[in-house]
Amino acid sequence: MAEVLMQASKVATGQAGAPACPVKDPPVDPEVVVATQPRRYTADYKLKILAATDQCQVHGDIGLLLRQEGLYHSTLRKWRRWRQRFQAQGVTMGLTHDPGKDLCEENARLLRENKRLELKLKKAEALIALQKKVSELITAHEDEAREGIHS
After folding, report:
1. How far apart are CA 122 and CA 138, in angstroms?
2. Which of 67, 69, 64, 61 shows the shortest CA–CA distance to 45?
3. Four-point Cα dihedral 137, 143, 149, 150, nearest 10
4. Contact 16, 10 (CB under 8 A)
5. What is the Cα–Cα distance from 93 to 48, expressed in whole angstroms?
6. Per-residue pLDDT tens for 86-142?
7. Residue 76, C-beta contacts closer than 8 angstroms, at least 6 positions apart
8. Which residues are CB-neighbours of 96 under 8 A, at least 6 positions away?
9. What is the mean pLDDT of residues 73-92?
10. What count of other Cβ atoms lies within 10 Å of the Cβ of residue 49?
11. How far apart are alpha carbons 66 and 72 in whole angstroms?
12. Cα–Cα distance between 93 and 38 in angstroms, integer?
């Protein structure tokens, strides 16, 4: 009877038919694992979590919520500062972009356009200078031709 129970326990734990000598673990791969990208959260998700934490009444509920969502308390603290900053500015909380980023992008676009126009201006000035020289040469040649006819 004891042998039957031992055999059943081996089958249940997956040790039935296990070799007598222990199998060595494969060698550890020394290659460095590529770091993952940090998670990005939408404003709606942040607001949902912040609203849920604001509703927590019992000690430990916030920790439970953070564990369920896979978040850290430091992340929650950053989100609370984020919410306070936007509320202080009177910005609607559905904002998903940074207004300062729009200004930076517009500034970069205007700088590119300015460089392009400066290059175009230099080309136009060089062309005008060339046209002046050609005009002077043609005028000088015509003057020489008239003097040759009248002489």
Report:
1. 24
2. 69
3. -170
4. yes
5. 11
6. 888 766 555 556 677 888 889 999 999 999 999 999 999 999 999 999 999 999 989
7. 49, 50, 53, 62, 66
8. 42, 43
9. 85
10. 18
11. 6
12. 22
Residue with tokens 């949902």: 48
Residue 76 sits at φ, ψ, to 5 deg, of -60, -40
Spatial separation of the C-alpha atoms in residues 137 and 142, rounded to whole Å: 9
C-alpha 30, offset from chain centre: 29
- The three-class DSSP label of residue 110 is helix
What are the tokens at 90?
């009177």
pLDDT score of 4 = 47
Q: Cα 60 from chain centroid?
A: 34
What are the backbone angles phi and psi of residue 124, rounded to the nearest 5°?
Answer: -65, -40
Whole-structure pTM over 0.90, yes or no? no
Six-digit token string for 123: 């080309």
